[in-house]
Amino acid sequence: MISEQTDAIVLRVFPWSETSCIATLFTRDFGKISVLAKGARRPKSPFEAALDLLSVCRIVFIPKAGDVLDLLTEAKLTRRFRAGARDLLRLYAGYYVCELLDRVTLRDDRHTEVFALAEQTLDALARTDLEIRAIVLRWELQLMRMLGHLPSWNQCSQCGEPIPDAATSVFGAEAGGVLCERCQAGQRLMVQITSRERTLLREFSTPQWQDIELSDYISTGRKTIRSVVQKYLTVLLDRKLNLHSYLEELGR
Ligand SMILES: [Zn+2]
Fold it and tell me: How many A from CA of 160 to the centre of ligand 1?
């Protein structure tokens, strides 16, 4: 059996038997995988403390075909998520990285860039000099962009007509982007956004995501920005995300 080696972020861990557990991992080279970690619950586990939620670790595993769980043979901790020790909001933001990643990705779908984004987001959350609202917004919009779900900020999402930079425009969560006046009829879950808010959303959607400034305090329409992104994600995923209610502070 061929074993594979890669880096992984721990998304979920639950007990399987008295000595084993099952973990959902998001890996750099293989996307999301579910592994059986035999002996992980023994006092002297071969995985030590690597299988903690939000940890980044170096793993070795044996892929299995079909519905059988992959077998984890090694896991070495690279970085523990430390942001939560100081700040509950940053801890919730870390859980949110997990939740969103788990919901939007399918098993074995490879997304190297998404791994880099998730890893950098967890790192950024541990740095108090970086603004949490900027970190979360970059995470959400860039994840959408990388997976091909970015809302349309410039053209009407229904008819494609360019939406001029007026004082305000209308975002339709169900339509998946801004709407021209004609296409607003009959739409639900609309949010009015100002030109400044739209500019900010556009800037955070840029493909040059590594250049997005995270140390600037977001003072522009926080409540509206949260409303746009959360409504959009709720419609896209067809469910309310658990962590959204823990992150209300971001809109204040
Ligand atoms: Zn239109």
Answer: 6
CB environment 202-232: b (16+ within 10 A), e (fewer):
ebbbeeebeebebeeebeebbebbbbbbbbb
Question: Mean pLDDT for each 10-residue chunk of the chain (252 residues)?
Answer: 94 93 96 93 82 94 90 94 85 96 89 96 93 96 97 96 91 96 94 95 96 87 96 95 94 92
Q: State the amino acid at position 146 in one-letter form.
A: M
CA–centroid distance, residue 163 to ligand 1 (Å): 9
Residue-range domain boundaries for the chain: 4-79, 83-151+177-251
> Largest Cα–Cα distance in the chain?
65
Ligand 1 centroid to Cα of residue 184, in Å, is: 7
pTM to 2 decimals? 0.94
CA of 239 to the centre of ligand 1 (A): 26
Q: How far apart are CA 164 and CA 172, in angstroms?
A: 16
* Domain 4-79: assigned CATH number: 2.40.50.140
Query: Which are the contacts of 124, defined by CB distance < 8 A and separation ≥ 6?
Result: 130, 135, 214
Question: 133: CA distance to ligand 1 center in Å?
Answer: 31
CA 179 to ligand 1 centroid distance, Å: 5
CA of residue 200 to ligand 1 center, whole Å: 22
Ligand 1 center to residue 203 CA distance, Å? 23
Residue 46 per-residue DSSP state: T
* Superfamily of structural domain 83-151+177-251: Recombination protein O, C-terminal domain (1.20.1440.120)
Alpha carbon separation from 57 to 28, 50, 88, 221, 235 (Å, rounded) = 11, 6, 23, 37, 33
